[in-house]
Design goal:
heterodimer, A: 324 residues, mainly alpha, 13 helices, flat, B: 547 residues, MetI-like fold, 3 domains, two-stranded antiparallel ribbon, 67% helix
């Protein structure tokens, strides 16, 4: 066998005679190119900022003609939404209440389950079983909203109508149950992060004082992780308010504020469903279309607010985890 | 507190937390179960001969000779049904019989004129024929069986008269016997009920212009305009349901005033008790196999076929193509943008106000409701940008893809950022120590090491784009339409199709397998993408931990 040569072969670009120090020219080129490169990268990264600004700009611009003619006050306080009447009335109050109504109802279902599940995942399950349980949450998050809506209309609605004798199966209860399922993955993962980020010290201190798991969780861990849990709830709320397909398909789309307020078996209508359902019938240039954009602005502002709140609590949670 | 109480409470708490996860699993099963169960029925089912006929006619896909032989055999079994119906009809359809009697009389009169007969004979024959006609019509219109018997007997008395031999008038007599035969067996006071009931049976068996029947249109019937009504039950489950409705008549009855109506089932055969049609209700269930020939079918072409009559027949091919097109075009925009943004955030940016604004924008973007993206896509891409660039301002794949690209940008950035961050510092430091520039280090060291993680982000964004519906409602999705020729055409997608079929017309409700098949296709596509992402991620973690 032929012995292989062991000489190191260098690429053609490697010039062995090159001095280690750069010439001033090379230095300048390097300096400029690194700064220009940085600027280009920055501009590309700024697309996100641009996108947010454009979204705000275009949605608001489109709603301005309507808001100028009809007035913000009437838009926000009138209960009547009659876009196709001879004298159209665009009162978004019912829609805003509807959105909040289903979202809050959804949270009532989702928050207890979500926190319990987060505790279970972070503190009770062994690492191995946890790797089996987590994909369940991930799959729940991955199922597209239209599939949930499909389930709500074709499976849940007929079942509820049969089982509970509701006049219609597409109602606030149906929508909020499905929204709860959709908000759960968000709530669970954020809450679990917050709970498990606390570290062992708090728990061990509590256990060593003789507290049971329940006491440790309820009196020590959850209070300590409250910022993260609040952030989880707010993010879940964001998910529920912004969700379109499910509420459009499952809420029944009746323009009314539920009366009595606790009766979930009534149909309601949300902002997102109104935009989705009526945009196709609102011709360009008509007040109806601008009104829908105005509804979009309200929706956007609501989510911005929730976003700021969640960021605040998330940063607090981060600090709390850093301290412990 | 008592130790026992504390222990019990603690156990209860542990049980509750476990129950919450079990609840999640149950929810997952409740959501996926019906979709998998009914959706798989779109591909795997017992197809009847009608299904194979439909495949031959609409999709040009069959073993023609074997199918022709099969159709001939089934037709033989069906012949009995046709005959039973015809026989029953002969005695029951008064209007048809009356007009037949009148026609025979008219024709006979015409025939007589060309015969060598004396004027007397002519008048007499005409007179007799006219009496026969009147007697028949009287019998047809009567509900008195005695009168019918008398009239028919009088008519039949003329049967052997030589003047009618070999003429049209001979047809009077079978008409009379058929009618008497039927009249002896049915309750004459319910003539009208029989007609209505017969019509129902015929619709169930042969279909109507609106709904398909069990066996499909009769061989020499006028062709129907809709494909869905031109065939019988193409699937065995459909056939079973129709058969059930054929054998059992359903009626909604008010049991108590004010209460919801109650469904009552009674055997349809009872309606035709004692008539020539009664055996039909035992013959059809017994011979349904021979008439339809169910056979297990794997209809994998569901994933490539276009549909007919709003998804009554066919598959979701164009929807899959549309979804893939939107997804791929969207990825072309979002992947480079996302990776470069992530690289900048990790490698170049230093903490400060600029960074805070960037981060806040990305978080805000992630929180914008999907329907608002739809509004934005419509207002910015379709109505503002397209006219500026000289494109036609209409909803199309490009607009939908761009909208979805903006929507998934945060997902892409966050995943890539995490991937780039998890690359060990030592890799980078080694490269920098060798004198490579930062750009070169990123391209040749960091990026390849982060690639699997970035790929995970790509796949997650893919699945997000494929599943979104609200943003493409006004920017590029349609429920019906041709397969797109370019990215400037709107397209059908799985997501919008699922929506449309769930809340769409009555037609979609008649084909739950296709309804669920569409949404199952979407879910399977997305779950596969997610599974790949999960596996990829866990392998990356293992690999990076190993170093």
């Amino acid at each position: 066998m032929e012995s292989r040569s062991l000489t190191l072969t260098l690429g053609p670009s490697a010039d062995r005679r090159r001095p280690l120090a750069l010439t001033p020219g090379e230095d300048l080129v390097g300096f400029i190119s690194s700064h220009v490169g940085r600027a280009v990268l920055f501009l590309i990264t700024a697309t996100s900022v641009l996108a947010v600004l454009l979204i705000l700009l275009f949605v608001i611009l489109r709603s301005v003609p309507f808001l100028r003619d009809f007035g913000v006050g009437e838009f926000l306080t009138s209960r009547l939404w009659r876009p196709t009447a001879d004298e159209p009335v665009f009162g978004a109050l019912t829609l805003i209440v509807g959105s909040l109504y289903v979202s809050i109802a959804a949270l009532l279902f989702a928050v207890p389950v979500g926190i319990l599940a987060a505790v279970f995942l972070s503190d009770i399950l062994s690492w191995k079983i946890r790797n089996v349980a987590k994909p369940v949450v991930e799959i729940l998050a991955a199922i597209p909203s239209v599939a949930y809506g499909f389930f709500a209309v074709l499976v849940l609605a007929p079942w509820m109508q049969r089982r509970f004798g509701f006049s219609t199966g597409t109602n606030a209860l149906n929508a909020s149950i499905i929204l709860a399922v959709m908000a759960l993955p968000t709530i669970i993962s954020v809450a679990e992060d917050a709970i498990s980020a606390l570290g062992r010290e708090l728990r061990e201190a509590s256990y060593s004082l003789g507290a049971t798991r329940l006491e440790t969780m309820v009196k020590v861990v959850i209070p300590a992780a409250h910022s993260g849990i609040i952030a989880a709830v707010v993010l879940g709320m964001m998910r529920a308010i912004g969700e379109t397909m499910v509420v459009w398909m499952a809420s029944g789309n009746a323009t009314q504020i539920p009366h009595p307020w606790w009766d979930l078996s009534q149909s309601i209508r949300t902002m997102t469903a109104t935009i989705a359902g009526e945009m196709g019938e609102a011709p360009e240039g008509m007040p109806h279309r601008s009104a829908l954009f105005a509804v979009g602005v309200v929706l956007l502002l609501m989510t911005f607010m929730l976003n700021i709140v969640s960021e605040y609590f998330l940063s607090r949670a981060k600090k709390a985890a850093g301290k412990s | 507190m008592n130790l026992g109480v504390r222990r019990t409470l603690d156990r209860l708490f542990t049980g509750l937390t476990g129950a919450s996860i079990v609840l999640l699993m149950l929810v997952l099963m409740a959501v996926l179960g019906p979709m998998i169960y009914r959706g798989s029925g779109a591909v795997l089912f017992d197809g009847t001969v009608e299904f194979r006929r439909m495949q031959r006619d609409l999709f040009n896909r069959a073993d023609r000779d074997a199918l022709s032989a099969e159709i001939a055999e089934t037709d033989e079994a069906r012949q009995v049904v046709y005959e039973m119906i015809d026989r029953f009809k002969k005695g029951i359809d008064i209007a048809a019989m009356s007009s037949q009697a009148r026609e025979i009389n008219r024709e006979y009169g015409g025939e007589l004129r060309y015969r060598d007969a004396t004027a007397e004979e002519y008048t007499e024959s005409r007179e007799v024929a006219r009496t026969i006609r009147d007697k028949l019509e009287e019998a047809f219109g009567s509900q008195d069986i005695e009168l019918i018997r008398k009239n028919i007997a009088e008519v039949l008395a003329h049967k052997d008269e030589p003047r009618f031999k070999g003429t049209v008038a001979e047809r009077f007599f079978p008409l009379a016997t058929d009618f008497l035969d039927a009249a002896e067996h049915i309750d004459l006071s319910h003539y009208h009920d029989y007609l209505v009931a017969l019509d129902e049976v015929e619709v169930l068996l042969f279909g109507s212009a609106e709904r398909p029947g069990l066996l499909g249109p009769r061989p020499n019937q006028v062709a129907r305009p809709l494909a869905m009504t031109s065939y019988g039950a193409t699937r065995w489950d459909q056939a079973q349901a129709l058969l059930d409705r054929l054998v059992w008549a359903e009626k909604w009855v008010e049991k108590e005033p004010g209460r919801p109506l109650v469904k009552e089932r009674s055997p349809r055969a009872a309606m035709f008790h004692g008539t020539a049609l009664e055996p039909l209700f035992t013959y059809v269930p017994e011979h349904i196999d021979e008439m339809l020939r169910p056979r297990f079918t794997v209809y994998w072409q569901f994933f490539i076929d276009d549909n007919f009559d709003s998804h009554y027949f066919g598959g979701v091919g164009p929807e899959i193509i549309g979804t893939l097109l939107i997804t791929v075009v969207g990825m072309l925009f979002v992947v480079p943008l996302g990776v470069i943004s992530a690289a900048y955030l990790v490698e170049c940016a230093s903490e400060g106000p600029v960074m805070r604004i960037l981060r806040m924008s990305i978080n805000t973007l992630a929180g914008v409701p999907s329907i608002v993206f739809g509004l934005f896509g419509l207002a910015f891409f379709v109505l503002f940008l397209f006219p500026k660039l000289g494109f036609e301002p209409k909803a199309c794949i490009l607009a939908a893809s761009l909208t979805l690209a903006v929507l998934t940008l945060p997902v892409m950035i966050r995943a890539s950022e995490e991937a780039i961050r998890t690359v060990p510092r030592s890799y980078k430091e080694g490269s920098l120590a060798l004198g490579a520039s930062r750009f070169r280090t990123f391209v040749t060291v960091t990026f390849p090491a982060a690639l699997p993680g970035i790929l995970t982000g790509v796949i997650l964004s893919l699945s997000r784009i494929a599943g979104e519906t609200a943003p493409i409602l006004f920017t590029g999705a349609v429920a019906m339409g041709p397969v797109p020729k370019s990215i400037f055409d709107p397209t059908r997608t799985l997501s919008y199709g699922s929506y449309d079929m769930a809340v769409g017309d009555r037609l979609a409700m008649m084909v739950p397998h296709n309804q669920y098949g569409m949404v199952l296709t979407l879910i399977v596509l997305i779950l596969i993408l997610n599974a790949v992402a999960i596996v990829l991620r866990s392998r990356v973690f293992k690999k990076l931990k190993g170093h």
